[in-house]
Design a protein that fits this description.
Keywords: Endonuclease, Hydrolase, Nuclease. Residues 24-241 form the Xylose isomerase-like TIM barrel domain. There is one protein chain. By secondary structure, the protein is α/β, with parallel strands linked by helices. Helices cover 38% and strands 14% of the residues. The protein contains 10 helices and 9 strands. The protein has a 9-stranded parallel beta sheet with strand order 6-5-4-3-2-1-9-8-7. Helix 1 (17-27) packs parallel to helix 2. Mean pLDDT is 94; it is low at 275-279.
């Protein structure tokens, strides 16, 4: 099965969804990943798909014109006091655009609250045919694989899953073998990038790198192949924010290089299911 790739929002931070879709098509991606939920990140596009009918119409046309599919939307964060119902407009947009998944992460330390709100988020997404994919982030409340699995097992929702970001997996010092106990059906896509092997001592530096200075796959020190090869072959969403390279190259050339380097890496490190059976 050929690898499939999505252009994630942070890779082209600030790029409007229609333009992002056309860029994805011209550069060879299969999917796009939008952010209709504003996060207040510097450089974020100032008009949301949930706020502008004109932008939604243009985006729908871009998807139809190109044949690019919407893989997921982000980011349905669960923080202290979060009411998951606030994400309903974004879910409606995702469903209207043919999206499949909603990315979530948990930023509260209150476990019972997190489980309750995550389960509610899954229930709200179900009528739209959407799954909720939980991502652990080393600077968040749920910062480890074990923490994410605890939430998923406690919530007990069929449309819940686990989204691995190889950067976060490395930074959280996870063990590869721990991926083997995760139910295979919980993997629906994952985030790809690279970064230096050395893990920053400060949260500030870790945050800066993950938001502004990730590297092309194969350029850094993360053993991407060993992580990817522990999970089923799923779509790979390239989330590779690098502020300087976007400024130097522009959205399209940078997106193209992200995809070219990813494909070159996987040609050199094929997933086990891609290797022909040897008698």
């Amino acid at each position: 099965m050929a690898n499939q790739f999505s252009l994630a929002y942070l890779t082209v931070l600030g790029c409007p969804p229609p333009e992002m879709t056309y860029i994805a098509a011209r550069t060879g991606y299969d999917f796009v990943s939008f952010r209709p939920i504003h996060m207040g990140v510097p450089g974020e596009h100032d008009v949301s798909l949930t706020e502008s009918k004109a932008l939604l119409k243009e985006t729908k046309k871009a998807l139809a014109d190109t044949g690019i599919k919407l893989l997921d939307i982000e980011l349905a964060r669960i923080c202290d006091g979060t009411d998951p119902k606030r994400y309903l407009p974004a879910m409606e947009v995702a469903a209207e655009l043919g999206g499949r998944h909603v990315l979530s992460s948990i930023w509260t330390k209150e476990r019972s609250f997190a489980v309750e709100r995550f389960a509610e988020l899954c229930d709200l997404a179900k009528p739209f045919g959407l799954t909720i994919e939980l991502e652990f982030v080393p600077i968040a409340g749920v910062s480890t694989l074990a923490g994410a699995l605890d939430i998923l097992r406690s919530a007990k929702r069929e449309n819940a899953g686990l989204m691995i970001d190889v950067h976060h997996f490395h930074r959280s010092k996870e063990k590869l073998e721990d991926l083997d106990v995760v139910p295979r059906e919980w993997f629906r896509y994952l985030h790809l990038c690279d970064a230096p092997a050395d893990i920053p001592d400060s949260q500030e530096e870790m945050t800066r790198i993950l938001r502004e200075e990730r590297l092309y796959i194969g350029e850094g020190g993360i053993d991407v192949a060993s992580i990817v090869n522990r999970v089923p072959q799923v779509p790979y969403s390239i989330e590779l924010p690098n502020t300087k390279r976007v400024q130097d190259l522009g959205y399209e050339t940078f997106a193209q290089r992200c995809l070219e380097t990813a494909k070159a890496y996987f040609n050199a490190h094929p997933h086990p299911v891609d290797v022909p059976y040897q008698i």
